[in-house]
Amino acid sequence: MTKSPIRVLVVDDQAIVRKGICALLAEVDDIEVIGEASDGKEAIAQAAALKPDVVLMDLVMPGVDGIDATRHITHELGFKVLVLTSFVGDDQVFPAIKAGALGYLLKDSMPADLLHAIRQVQRGEPSLHPTIARKVLYEMQQPASQPPTPDPLTDRELEVLRLVAQGISNREVAEALVVTEATVRSHVSNILSKLHLANRVQATLYALQEGLTQL
User: Fold this and answer.
1) Phi, psi of 182 (to 5 degrees)
2) Tally of structural domains, the chain
3) 113 and 170 part of one domain
4) 1 belongs to a structural domain
């Protein structure tokens, strides 16, 4: 049985960039561009109407910017966002992650890296550009500003969190713990709920910050 292609919404205020991305993705069998948007407001409307698997999001746009659009699309609409931007400043990286972006890629990345990131994010797995990963690691070396969750994780949830923080998929976690993928999904959902986090990227940051794992 042939799998359905990954449905992608491309958001960028520069038409030439959008068209270039769309042309690249059109050459790939398992990815389909279902729409384009030139700003955050249009991105939110298009996401609500088209229900994409992945929203490829620029950050700096007129009107509603990519961070606000990401926050609305992830929290209100429940869709996955992969940031694709030229900006690596802390005032862009961390707000985008906190807004719920599951991936963060730079525009100077290789096309193969973009395709890989889209597939990872569609599976619900984090995807961070190495430059961004280094920033995250540095940030995690600073003293924690948030106290631990008042609703502690169970031993099994901590075990799942440590594995998730290593960037492995639910299937791989299930194989490691000899449980079903459904059980892993349930644990991940409980972890995110207890920690008040949006996605696996934020769960990884929490695990690093609390010393539960290392990258």
Assistant:
1) -60, -40
2) 2
3) no
4) no
The span from the CA of 43 to the CA of 84, in Å, is 14
pTM attached to this predicted model: 0.70
Q: How many CB atoms lie within 10 A of CB 211?
A: 9
DSSP 76: I
- Do 166 and 196 lie in one domain? The reply is yes
Q: What's the CATH number where 107 sits?
A: 3.40.50.2300
Q: Which of 75, 72, 136, 79 is nearest to 104 (CA)?
A: 136
Interstrand relation of 103-106 and 127-128 (parallel, antiparallel or unpaired) = parallel
pLDDT tens string, the chain, 215 residues long: the values are: 568 999 999 999 999 999 999 999 999 999 999 999 999 999 999 999 999 999 999 998 989 999 999 999 998 998 999 999 887 765 677 788 888 888 888 888 899 999 999 998 998 888 887 777 766 656 555 544 455 556 788 999 999 998 888 777 788 889 999 999 899 989 988 888 888 777 777 787 788 777 777 65
Domain that holds residue 177: 155-209
> Is 59 in a helix, a strand, or coil?
coil
For residues 161 and 135, membership in a common domain is answered with: no
The distance of Cα 113 from the centroid of its chain, to the nearest Å, equals: 14
